[in-house]
Design goal:
The structure is a homodimer of 487-residue chains. The first copy, chain A, has 487 residues and is α/β, with parallel strands linked by helices. The first copy, chain A, is 40% helix and 11% strand. In chain A, strands 3-11-10-9-8-4-5 form a seven-stranded mixed sheet, with helices on both faces. The longest helix of chain A is centred in the last third of the chain and has 26 residues, at 371-396. The first copy, chain A, starts with 18 loop residues before the first helix and ends with a helix.
């Protein structure tokens, strides 16, 4: 061939793509631009490699790829040539100017993943730097060694998750939270969000009545709303959610976060727990107990889970590994009443069948080896210290906030004076790079204003410095208010 | 203390659980059985370690775990003692006989994971032994090194997947299948099943009309049925799906597998493709193009994707890594028309937010490094040989089956004589350990009987031997039929 395509190909070793990929893309562009027309022979791999000063193997691999994609065809007589059966459609479609002899290039963003760390004081964020990733990776290797390539296969009947993980979790939940269950009732989900979605679609119909804590968890609210259910906001006080005392009160479903109400932090008292369980048994309502961060307690031992108090099988227990391990793992779980297992499985199998298995097998190893407990212990210690730092900084700086519930969890809600506008506060903080959602953002009805601080992901110094900026923002505003002439 | 709990504790180094876990469980059982009553002191870690002949560290870790779970409490004066605030509920709930002094044990199944390899001739199964797992693991390490702990965090705005993977896939699909898209249109899903579920819920209402290939893919059918949509079966012939020629024919959604119709294997002809795209443009119908195994072609180059032929933005393209890489990875993808991106994101975020990120970052590395293409090439070569073996074995053994579509994919449908009952055939084969689904199982209406063989997961010898067993089953039956006296 007369034209030497090598003169039109520019490869760049600093690019994110391999030389092989760059070469394959360039060759396709040359085909699309008709520099290499259908039926034309392409240079031998030896020639092209020489022209481009790259290894011959790279050229062979790029050619192989183009053969596979139908751009090139091998011929015993002529070597490799551009496929004549390439349709006009493929040739004209790829958005390149047709007759151009200079080859346009896809522009890739370099270093384009702007993955962020949580900004102070974003709620519900674990400090993933505490996570023993190297140990996790060893457990992954161990799981792959134990199960071999079997772990890569499609496995029927794993819709509810990897059996050894379900068993291990059942034991953990029985022991640590008193949850009454057999492992067949434990289902692994893609985060707790998927459990909420699935339960919403199993248990609710349009116009179903869902009682939920107000303020409450938005992920849950959105799941109920998708079904067309009606939301019944339930107030929170120091003893947690307070169902209306009216005996005629009814709901198909009650959603609650009893260990530490999200976002206020109130703990559901034992007497309220017992009456909630009694309500469910009496009215045949479902209760969803979202125990999202019960692992993090810094002083007194936890109250028993609602599920452990229930003898009528109406409490559904949900938990998550997002906070105990790391969020991007996307593993949550739900303990289902036996009566729901079959329907739940059927819906899950249509929804996405099941989640990735290697992670599930790894997690089972991680728990069985005791690493799970050590990590909880280590995180709890670190977070307990951070909680102290947080409270000390806030009280030293005389923030105009009161923090009534400071005994656990990952977040602290600071209540503002009732005349304040918490969204305005939150927006102002956001403008100086501080992320503290307004309590009213989580509310269905007007609520006492407040700000929801997370404290677990931030080291002592970050907390202290960020707290000073929060204090300055509050002071600046008060000065501004005072200095503002009334006209 | 007088009683030495060590005499009641039996640890077993051969068990799946670590000694620490076994010890923690045993101690809890002793508490629950009141051998260690609330307020009682527990032995020092040194004493207990000595009695049990285990390391003191193991005891300390088990104690730490029980402190964390509220069973034990440290006291400056008395060392460690059983928590007095443990409620009766926790004590009585765990299913143990209360006053027993011998400790009952949880019975764990040993080696209980019966992970199976696919049985011949299960359809749609890649041979995961071909997968370069070591290389994949290196790419995972590389991804973790590039992004560090950022990859473990919750990341907002990743509902549609990890950006570098979405970009890489957009390039791959543009180049290999002519798919017209910007990377913002590419969404990563938990297998292609989740894409089907999400699209069903976005695009269909009860009584919506869905035209789908008959016989067709069950995972898709189940997704449509969940919405209450009405299914309109569309026949298949040698040119693939044949929409009714009646100009008044309408459907909100058409589902098709044009590259290789599942399960028959027919390829949608170019003229049918063009008229399908024209139908969608004219009637404003959506088309879902499920390109589930287009990577596996053994002779002629692929026809352009439907999506590449469409200029009205009505074709939604779906693909999967389950067959190209490995099924338990659970990564699929969908290329959305720009008009659907926002709604799709909103539904996905309520459903489960997003899938695990480490796998997605690993896959992006795997593709960028060229390993993806090498693996496709290697698999294609192996599967091409297996296809030959399959066809040779079937024809040598004179199976009473005709295989009209043998140019690609992972499955071959063998049509039976129209008087045969394919379910009865399939059941009989199942009884001798051969798994070949009946074609009628995939059908909405009575269909020509057939059997759907997968050939990709089985080595030459397995195929040859299994085929002999299939042939024997057919012969046995015919002999049986002949020998049966007519009475």
């Amino acid at each position: 061939m007369s034209k030497r395509p090598a003169t039109l190909i520019v490869l760049d070793r600093n690019k994110r793509e391999s030389l092989q990929t760059q070469l394959a893309v360039s060759l396709k562009e040359l085909v699309q631009a008709r520099v290499l027309a259908p039926g034309a022979a392409v240079p031998s791999s030896r020639d092209l490699a020489g022209d481009l000063r790259i290894s011959r193997n790279t050229v062979i691999q790029a050619y192989d790829r183009l053969i596979g994609e139908g751009y090139l065809e091998p011929s015993a007589r002529r070597g490799l040539f551009v496929s004549e059966s390439l349709t006009e459609k493929i040739l004209s479609r790829t958005g390149l100017s047709n007759a151009s002899t200079t080859v346009s290039r896809f522009v890739f963003q370099q270093n384009s993943e702007k993955l962020g760390m949580p900004v102070p004081f974003r709620p519900c964020q674990p400090d993933v730097r505490l996570f023993p990733l190297a140990l996790w990776n060893r457990m992954r290797t161990r799981a792959l060694r134990s199960y071999g390539t079997h772990l890569l296969h499609y496995q029927s009947e794993l819709t509810l998750g990897f059996p050894s993980l379900r068993r291990t979790l059942a034991t953990y939940l029985r022991e640590s939270r008193g949850v009454q269950c057999d492992w067949h009732q434990v289902a692994i989900t893609t985060g707790s969000q998927q459990a909420l979605y699935l339960l919403a679609h199993l248990l609710l119909r349009p116009e179903s009545r869902v009682a939920m804590e107000d303020p409450g968890y938005l992920g849950a609210r959105f799941a109920w709303q998708r079904t067309g259910a009606r939301l019944i906001p339930v107030s929170i006080d120091a003893e947690g959610m307070r169902l209306p005392p009216d005996k005629r009160f009814s709901a198909e479903l009650v959603y609650t976060t009893p260990s530490r109400q999200f976002p206020t932090g109130a703990c559901l008292s034992l007497s309220r727990r017992l009456s909630l369980v009694e309500f469910a048994a009496r009215t045949n309502a479902w209760i969803i107990e979202d125990d999202y961060d019960s692992e993090f307690r810094y002083s007194r031992p936890p109250l028993p889970s609602l599920q452990s108090l229930d003898s009528s099988g109406r409490v559904i227990y949900i938990g998550s590994m997002s906070k105990v391990l790391f969020p991007s793992l996307r593993i949550g779980y739900v303990v289902l009443p036996a009566s729901l297992v079959q329907e739940f499985t059927a819906l899950r199998s249509v929804l996405d069948d099941h989640g990735p298995l290697i992670d599930q097998a790894t997690l089972a190893q991680f728990i069985d080896a005791g690493a799970f407990y050590s990590h909880i212990r280590r995180s709890r210690r670190a977070y307990g210290e951070r909680l102290q730092t947080f409270i000390e900084s806030a009280s030293k700086l005389l923030l105009p906030l009161s923090f009534p519930y400071i005994d656990g969890g990952m977040n602290l809600t600071g209540f503002l004076d009732s005349t304040e506008d918490d969204r305005e506060c939150s927006d102002r903080l956001k403008s100086i790079g501080i992320e503290i959602p307004a309590l009213s953002q989580y509310s269905l009805r007007p609520t006492r204003p407040g700000l929801v601080f997370g404290f677990t992901a931030f080291e002592q110094r970050t907390t202290q410095e960020s707290m000073k900026r929060v204090a300055l923002a509050f002071q600046g505003r008060r000065k501004g208010h005072r200095g503002e002439p009334a006209h």
